[in-house]
């Protein structure tokens, strides 16, 4: 079975029950992610839709979950899946089929996908609402709207509405995904541990003369070796002033002695991903200028982590990072003046232009609200995981920056679990202090652990 299969019927039934209790009466219709064509008859690597996988653990493409509450306050779930097919399975790989979907994933019934559009009118009968997200798959939307249009055509005057109201279930699913349950947190702990190991491998492997993609290969080999099926996002391996390009992805420059190397990469495990950035010296020792910038970013990052307290506004970590970075820019001679005023006027922005945090989970920029309807920051809930990732990007040609600091880009990123007892850094196994980073750099370092 696919490594994306999570056969845990009780876990997924609990998640579905919690979701349907939030949504109330109506029918949930949730397709997994569509397959996408790369070219000809070749598809991009498949990854199940995050919401669908969260609620079913089912790994295959072309699957649809249908669920609703029963009169007794429980719920009933159906899966529509690809049927067993000897010829297709010879070409494309094994399928669970309807019997396997029911037996292994514990739904009440499973049907061949081809029966969905016949069954749906019956399943919708008497339902006041349809919980469905429009916009993810145009072909699926079209078929659903055609179904409703056909119903409306047959509909006589002075009857109940021809079709149920369509309501978006995604905010309710996002709220469930934001505060991790035990299984989700277990997956995050493994994903972040593998991610940290990959970063240690990168530190051990990097040396002058290698290409950035060779370090990427060492990092990702460690991810795969430890059981991660794929990365959570494309790895950024940026040496020298490439570190000042936030989503750098060419990864093909040759590392030079004296460079810093910024690596931003995350391993996925059981549907969840880590997201770590470390910046380290290719030759094993920070120069004085690099160490000065690194120290400022590290101080800001520690301040951001301290701000990840349960109930604190969701922008508290960013505010803490910005204050510390701005103070640091004054100390480094990049800015001049009163720190509070410089922060108010956003004078740090040329060298720190991104946010400091995002929710983390199944998706690297995970679902969950940051602000309420009045644009006030939401309080940080216990069980949420967010990144803290300040940086400074001092351009190679930036004349506002003291000459010796030009071309230095540093970002430090950890994944932090909000708990009632304070922030817990899930990624603490990735070296971060100057001393620990230097000790981890260079051939042989990893095997000495
Ligand atoms: N690598 C994407 C991020 O850190 O947000
Ligand atoms: Mn991040
Ligand atoms: Mn990152």
Structure description:
This protein is of the alpha+beta class. The chain folds into 2 domains: 168 residues, Creatine Amidinohydrolase, Chain A, domain 1 (3-Layer(aba) Sandwich), CATH 3.40.350.10; 268 residues, Alpha-Beta Complex (Creatine Amidinohydrolase), CATH 3.90.230. Helix content is 35%, strand content 17%. The protein is built from 13 helices and 18 strands. A hairpin with a 2-residue loop joins strand 17 and strand 18. Helix 8 packs antiparallel against helix 9. The longest helix is centred in the middle third of the chain and has 24 residues. The radius of gyration is 25 Å and the shape is globular. The two termini are 34 Å apart. The model has no long low-confidence stretch (mean pLDDT 96). Bound molecules: glycine (GLY) and manganese (II) ion (MN) (2 copies). The site of one manganese (II) ion (MN) has 5 residues, from loops.
